[in-house]
Specification:
Layout lengths: L2 E5 L3 H12 L3 E6 L7 E2 L2 E4 L9 E3 L4 H11 L6 E2 L4 E2 L4 E2 L4 E2 L4 E2 L4 E2 L4 E2 L4 E2 L4 E2 L4 E2 L4 E2 L4 E2 L4 E2 L4 E2 L4 E2 L4 E2 L4 E2 L8 E3 L4 E2 L4
Parallel strand pairs: 1-2, 1-5, 2-4, 6-9, 7-10, 8-11, 9-12, 10-13, 11-14, 12-15, 13-16, 14-17, 15-18, 16-19, 17-20, 18-21, 19-22, 21-23
Antiparallel strand pairs: 3-4, 23-24
The structure holds acetyl coenzyme *A.
Family: Belongs to the transferase hexapeptide repeat family.
Organism: Sphingobacterium daejeonense
Protein name: Acetyltransferase
Length: about 200
Amino acid sequence: MNDISVIGASGHAKVIIDLIEELGYLIGNVYDQDFQKDKLLGFKVTHDFIDIPKQSIIAIGNNLVRKKIAIQFDLELNALIHPKSNVSRYSQIGKGTVVMAGVSINADSVIGKHCIINTNSSIDHECIIGDFVHVSPNAALAGNVQIGECSHIGIGSCIKQGVKVGKNCIIGAGAVVIRDVSDGLTIVGNPGKELKKK
Ligand SMILES: CC(=O)SCCNC(=O)CCNC(=O)[C@H](O)C(C)(C)COP(=O)(O)OP(=O)(O)OC[C@H]1O[C@@H](n2cnc3c(N)ncnc32)[C@H](O)[C@@H]1OP(=O)(O)O
């Protein structure tokens, strides 16, 4: 394999293109069904989703859309891990996950498939991160934290050791989560409290 294709032509895809090139691979095709997008960082955008290569990365920030595309295309690409991240040899990282610059992942943590572990976030020892999770820039997860599938951990948030966050949750920007979070809830503030739908 010497090239990797990119599904999605958003700002997040720009960061992924940078990551792919940093790892020494070439960019294959860039795909996006939005006909308004014709170029991304100088790469031509292909609008036809036929013949997507198995060695493609889903560069879409929305967790549910990323999951839908992963189910549709059954991709085979291993995780892309930025050379300037600190990933324990005793951790496991699922296929299709991206680990951006400045990330720390400590011993015995398990990260699922098609996750985004974003710039400068920190995942400490023995965490379990489900598939399709996004850990935003500068979020900090203490030891033994668990995050359920498709949850979004907001920028600069902190999660106390041992806390379990359910599936499809949103942890707001800057939130401090000190108690377990049930599936589907949005948590904001310090200490983190449920943001009720109006
Ligand atoms: C590289 C990247 O860009 S990665 C992307 C990183 N981005 C993030 O992490 C964003 C995370 N998202 C947030 O924090 C969002 O504000 C959410 C999801 C928590 C809430 O979004 P919305 O549902 O649209 O809420 P909305 O903006 O309407 O605000 C609703 C109320 O919650 C409050 N609120 C919203 N976000 C927060 C927050 N992070 N902390 C505290 N209060 C908040 C608002 O002040 C508002 O309060 P009010 O009703 O008293 O005026």
